[in-house]
Amino acid sequence: MKKSKTSFFCQHCGYMSPKWLGKCPSCNGWNCFAEELVVESDSSSRAEMNFDGKPQSIEDIPLTEGQRTNTGIAEIDRVLGGGIVGGSAILIGGEPGIGKSTLMLQMMHNLAQKGLKVLYVSGEESASQIKLRSERIGAASKNLLVLVEVSLEKILEQIKIVSPAIVVIDSIQTVYSAELMSAPGSVGQVRESSSRLILFSKKFGIPVFLVGHVTKDGSIAGPKVLEHMVDTVLYFEGDSSHTYRIVRGIKNRFGPTNEIGVFEMQDKGLKEVPNPSTFFLAERPQNVAGSVVVPSLEGTRPILVEIQALVSATNFGNPRRTAIGVDYNRVSLLVAVLDKICGLHLSGSDIFINVAGGVRVEEPAVDLGVVAAMASSFLDKPIDARTIVLGEAGLAGEVRAVSQMEVRVKEAARLGFNRCLVPKTNAAQLGKIAKMEICKIGSLKELLENLF
Ligand code: TYD
Ligand code: MG
Questions:
Q1: pLDDT one-digit tens code per residue, 93-121
Q2: How far is the CA of 221 from the centre of ligand 2 (A)?
Q3: 94 in ligand 1 pocket by Cβ < 6 Å?
Q4: Where are the alpha helices (DSSP H) in 7-64?
Q5: What is the largest CA-CA distance in the chain?
Q6: Fold for the domain defined by 69-274
Q7: Which ligand is nearest to the CA of 172?
Q8: Using a 6 Å cutoff on CB, does residue 137 contact ligand 1?
Q9: Where are the domains of the chain?
């Protein structure tokens, strides 16, 4: 085989250098060089990757995407948009130890039991370690093949020989191509290995799952560099100190994004949590100031979470502000609005906001929840335990509409909540909901008047 040629390219401006450089002479960026393969026109090693396609009318392309394979794990199927699409590349990211390998093995086991031949390629654990884990989660099937390998060329060769229905690469950071000089896990290697695996999977219609570690700062050679190359990106959220795990769809070419799947890590692997609201509200204190429930929407699913606030007098010069699970900047904004417009003088108080259970709620629709929790703690008045609040706050103290109000309020009604404070502007969309008192709010002032 002809020795292939590689060069180093600046990831910002594309400057090419035969050697690695710390600083790019062209754009002056630091630490931005990654090794890439320089493809020669007659490169035989890449010929296998060619699609040798011709343009065709879009009407003539057969529709094959309708065929999805169910993973047997309902929470993952929903995040994927109804199962695995043939030939798709799916990236599973997350911090080390969060449960990526466990989830993959459980899923592969389910698929193998359905009679599909699946290949689990591991570059991190030995075959016996995988066996040990499989014993623990009860995954054993003739159709589940395990390959311990890190060389990209050998992995591709084995995929060709075995021709499995689904491939898992655990993890992409351990795979290396002999054609590049850089070490496994470097940007160049990760990108080259993934692009060849993805091309291969597209050509033969084999779905491939790529497991990728997210480093703490989320940058170096992490899954970030391949997010744009794959069809679907799923990230594991949650931290190892809590037992629950959330798998969130960040990107999905074949389905909805921001859909989440909730799991609980047990001694026998990951268990689905079909009713996350009850799970997150399980330990909620009753009739305590500073706690309120908001119906947040994750993808298409409403999930009720508890927002807690603790407002206490500052002992030092600068008040402390901490926000866990909600956006810090939004909290600062809401504090300022409460101070200036509602006359609730929080500027001299330490404020701590926490979303119980360690969930993250990103959408502005939970603004009123944060406001209500802070006001409740500041005034030391508990909010009724069966009340929910919902709405986005504006800088002038007005309350703005939220999307999909009906599903949210219905979910709350289903769980036994009987009063909701919702934005006036789109309250009209809300039909009559049994046993639910609907209180329409136009401004933050009105919220505070109606809250207790
Ligand atoms: P793992 O899937 O190895 O994480 P990753 O591949 O993302 O690095 O999960 C490891 C953690 O999960 C480890 O701390 C042990 C825990 N675990 C359980 O609690 N129960 C189980 O059944 C399994 C298999 C793992
Ligand atoms: Mg692992």
A1: 988 888 999 999 999 999 999 999 999 99
A2: 17
A3: yes
A4: 44-47
A5: 78
A6: Rossmann fold (3.40.50)
A7: 2
A8: yes
A9: 1-42, 69-274, 279-451
